Amino acid sequence: MGSKKFLSVFILVLTFTVAAFAAETDVSGKADETGATAGGQSQEIQPSEDDIQWVWGEVAGLDIPGNTLTLKYLDYETDQEKDITLSVDEKTSFENIKNLADIKNKDTLSIDYISGPEGKNIARNIGLENPDSYEGSSEDPA
Question: pTM for this structure?
Answer without folding.
Answer: 0.60
